[in-house]
Design goal:
The chain is of the alpha+beta class. The chain is built from 8 helices and 15 strands. The strands form 3 sheets. The protein has an 8-stranded mixed sheet, sandwiched between helices. Strands 12-11-13-15-14 form a 5-stranded mixed sheet, with helices on both faces. A hairpin with a 2-residue loop joins strand 9 and strand 10.
């Protein structure tokens, strides 16, 4: 049974994720309002990202005033206690797609408590798919229970990955080459959170990337765990604030993806 306090937070996260998606879509309907800027190489920021994060933080803070917050755009806002639960927010994951009017983007919200991700919500706004998971409570899409794919043969796998300039381009190319040489179909949807959600949903067989931040990864990793998949220990070694590599897959394929990322 999900603890009542976690159920309350889950309902609040789902509700505000829908509100956030609607706000983002209103910005899309008025392209002049987007105010697209570059934070770095192929790392975009829009006015919608900032507005959506403010909406999520203000709404959840009003409901849970003692909680802490960590957002992609706003950084860390501490709660009233050092051990307070922390909301980890990516207001628009897939901003490069979003800013170009492409449909592959989402709102991602996770809750970390006592060093573990306890709740994850990802709203695929374009398809109106609400992915949600609580630790020990399963993973769901629009109320339907999720399970990772039954794929066991790496040569039959479809794997999503991503690249950011924080990692060497050569290492990324070598990893992709290793996967291709094993027969893997390698895709790149441009939203790590959605790629991870699709692994939990059995639509993809794995996701691997050299470095992601917590707001990109935590909600999707919990979805995969609760859907029966295997993921790396992302929060170890300062992952909450510094980020870490991501390996997530069906149990049978996890080792192959770990080897590909490690260069083996």
């Amino acid at each position: 049974m999900i603890p009542p306090q976690l159920t309350q937070r889950l309902h609040a996260a789902q509700a505000v994720a829908r509100e956030a998606s609607a706000l983002a879509r209103r910005h899309l309907a008025d392209p002049a309002s987007l105010d697209v800027r570059h934070k770095g190489a192929q790392d975009l920021l829009t006015a919608a990202d900032r507005a959506v994060e403010r909406l999520i933080v203000s709404t959840l803070h009003a409901a849970f005033p003692n909680d802490a917050f960590l957002g992609e755009e706003g950084g860390r806002v501490a709660g009233s206690a050092s051990d307070a639960p922390c909301w980890v927010i990516d207001p628009i994951d897939g901003t490069a797609n979003f800013a170009r009017g492409l449909p592959t983007w989402c709102v991602s919200i996770a809750l970390v408590a006592a060093g573990r991700t306890e709740l994850g919500v990802i709203h695929d706004a374009s398809a109106d798919l609400m992915y949600a998971a609580t630790r020990g409570g399963g993973a769901w899409r629009n109320g339907e229970r999720l399970a990772v794919s039954p794929t066991t043969d790496i040569a039959r796998a479809s794997v999503d990955t991503g690249y950011a300039s924080r990692t060497p381009a050569a290492a990324f190319g070598e990893m992709v080459t290793r996967l291709l040489q094993q027969g893997v179909i390698v895709t790149q949807c441009g939203s790590a959170a959605l790629g991870l959600a699709r692994v939990a949903d059995g639509r993809l067989d794995g996701y691997v990337e050299g470095h992601l931040y917590a707001w990109d990864a935590l909600a999707g990793l919990l979805l995969i765990e609760e859907a029966g998949g295997r993921v790396n220990a992302f929060l170890h070694g300062g992952g909450l604030t510094q980020g870490n590599p991501v390996i997530a897959a069906t149990p049978a394929l996890y080792a192959a993806l770990a080897d590909a990322l490690a260069g083996r």
